[in-house]
Sequence to fold (73 residues):
Amino acid sequence: MEAKCILVLPNEKKDLGLAHTRRLLSLLEGRAEVFVPPEMSRALACAPISREMLGHVQLAITLGGDGTIISRA
Fold:
């Protein structure tokens, strides 16, 4: 079975300190290959998504509101 590839797209203005994002990443740890936007990878100690990997993403999770979903799409 192919490994799951998940992209997590947090909104730093809604998730202050990225606490909810960190919790989500801990829940996904070991269950999927998880990526975040490059500008957040260092702060979250998570692999940055690259253009090449975008085609392999099976699930994208946004953390914020409808504006976050629209802007990330």
Notes: The longest strand covers residues 5-10. The beta strands are 5-10, 33-36, 47-48, 59-63.
